Amino acid sequence: MEVENPNPIMNNELVPMEDTQPIETEMQLDLLDPEANHSEELTPSIVEQQPTKRRKKKSLVWEHFTIETVGVGCRRACCKQCKQSFAYSTGNKVAGTSHLKRHIAKGTCPVLLRNQERNNQSTPYSAPPKMSSFTDAPKRRYRTAASVPYLSFDADRCRHEIARMIIMHDYPLHMVEHPGFVAFVQNLQPRFDMVSFNTVQGDCVATYLREKAIIQRVIEGVPGRICLTLDLWPSSRTIGYMFVSGQFIDTEWKMHRKLLNVIMEPYPESDTAFSHSVAACLSDWNMDGKLFSVTINQPLNDAAVDNMRALLSVKNPLVLNGQLLVGNCLARSLSRIVEDAVISVHGLVEKIRDSVKYVKTSESREEKFIEVKQQLQVPSSKTLAIDDQTRWNTTYEMLLAASELKEVFSCLDTTDPDYKDAPTGEDWKQVETLCTYLKPLFDTANLLTTAATPTTNSFFHEAWKIQLELARAATSEDPFLSTLTKSMQENFNKYWKSSCFILAIAVVMDPRFKLKLVEFSFSKIYGDDSASYVKIVDDGIHELFLEYVALPLSLTPAYAEAMNGQSVNSEDPQEIGSNGLGLTDFDVYIMETTSQLAKSELDQYLEESLLPRVHEFDVVGWWKVNRRKYPTLSKMACDILSIPVCTVPAASLFDTVRKEMDSYRCSLRPETVEALICTKDWLQSEIVEAPTTTQVKVEVPI
User: Fold this and answer.
1) Is 129 helix (H, G, I), strand (E, B) or coil?
2) What per-residue confidence (pLDDT) applies to 687?
């Protein structure tokens, strides 16, 4: 038996505000349903005593329901079609007929719905009945539960939401043909005709095309250049999938990162795989002439590097002849270094892991461990956790926590006879050494986990410190330390050599450091040879600046200012090119004179005093504020500061296992795979991104 809800508000009933006496008069019952005759809705005994006074019910709802007595003083309304019962009356309390009308009107009666669809008829009610006015009620005010608006069924909207659901949650397209899902949807809304695999695939591609058009308009309006990242995913079918992302600063001086393409590469190990993906992306998004740099997720062989540089020199000849190629992803480089370091001391790490597992796999042992910690008054706030060996940050945090709790482990060794093979004092010393040299790698990787996309200058300081510390430790007389850090230093040196030039020119664009930090750090790393390395950076940034001075008209500072909403005076093209003579010499003259003036713009910036170092300094915001003072240099700075150092999303920064395309997606058409993955990235960024104001914080000097 269904229990009546004691709360009348939950049943959308009218309730007197002054008192809670039951509704007894026929006039008050008519307020619930003016069409119904409520003489039968009085107490059953009264109805039985006065059968001759019963009036015929006028409401259409009684053509579809009958009243059944289910107990003493309790009656329920039963649907003639589906036999489902609803509350009607309990004692003197009457539920009314609104909920019965909704059962018919909204198509929730499956039997009635099938009959109507078979006969091509509509439901008796197109919408829930409206309440009559209370103006005639005798000095009594009523309240009702929040009304639910009547929403008409929209099959197209349902298809759209199914496509979004599949995209956002990586559900297989074939789920729309799974019997369990089909049954669920049919019970939820019988009028919805479940779509097929081909239909939902088309809906997902249509969603992709709509979102792509929005991104295309954003890219077309970018005043500067665009930097690309390439992340190659292998698959069990020996086919590769190249994830191509673009990073840029928009007209509002905000950094954006968008996944642009997922390109299937039949021969991912070939020397042309990466260059082919870049060319395909540029063609797809009409970005010829806008490419600035390329960052790759793995080291390339010489032939592949030559192919990539050749492409850059053709597609982007005005930017250092295509030399802005970052050959290593910072996150993957750090993961490889940590993985090699952990492998070199595998026995030590395994011993610590076994000790942590001994404590964490038993509630009683964990409680005892905490009790001993409290008795020893160990100040550490760390908690033990078994690491996930596919994510190196969890291994580092496990080692760090265990190291801080080594006193508790030592005491556990003496009080618990089942705890065996405990780490020795020398083991704990080596663990502390390992954590000391993993910490700067961990801190650097954490910079990439921030919600806002970090600018390139943020990583120079971290990179040169790691390079210096590992180089010093590799020459240590401590055999454990030198063995550990030598392999780490060799691996990081590969990243440093391929990326230090770009990191250096990025930090020059930071008014807190400029070329001074490059000179200081290189003197620490290269010693007497530092001047030659500093000169490479100085010459490179001056050469790049001159190329910006000579940019085509469509990329001049005046064009960038126009994109920011500022007016640019222009003459009629017909008047400018009316005779076609003499303008070439005039353009050369303008270029030469502008070059002399703009050349001093960079020198003026470098010669000015450094800004005080402050917390949360917004370097892009500083260039926005100073764009009129440095019209050309500010444009170049935005392009440099948007060079990405990482090719993977934040969720994969600490992965030690390379991402691989799953077999299901490999079975789909390449166009469908691209549509699903790219659209998910765009929809997620719409949720995450929020409008923020760009400002420079200068209140807290370091």
Assistant:
1) coil
2) 67
Are 391 and 655 spatial neighbours (Cβ–Cβ below 8 Å)? yes
Tens-place pLDDT, residues 323-363: 677 778 999 999 999 999 999 999 999 999 999 999 999 99
The identity of residue 193, as a single letter, is D
Assess contact for 259 and 630: CB atoms under 8 A. no
- Residues paired with 79 in a beta bridge: 65
What string of H, E and C letters represents the secondary structure of 363-381?
HHHHHHHHHHHHHHCCCCC
In the block, tokens 């409290």 appear at 374
- Tell which residue, 640, 659, 644, 639, has the closest CA to residue 330: 644
Q: How far is CA 111 from CA 61, 104, 335, in A?
A: 16, 10, 61
What value, to the nearest 5°, has the Cα angle with vertex 15 and ends 10 and 18? 140
Q: Is the pTM of this model over 0.90?
A: no
Element spanning 333, H or E: helix 330-344
* Cβ atoms < 10 Å from Cβ of 26: 13
Q: How far apart are CA 682 and CA 218, in angstroms?
A: 12
Read off the tokens for 462.
């971290």
**Total residue length of the chain:** 702
Task: Round the CA-based radius of gyration of the chain to a whole number and report it.
Answer: 36
The rounded distance, in Å, linking the Cα atoms of 470 and 487 is 9
Task: State which residues of the chain have pLDDT below 70.
Answer: 1-58, 91, 106-108, 110-151, 316-323, 451, 552-599, 687-702
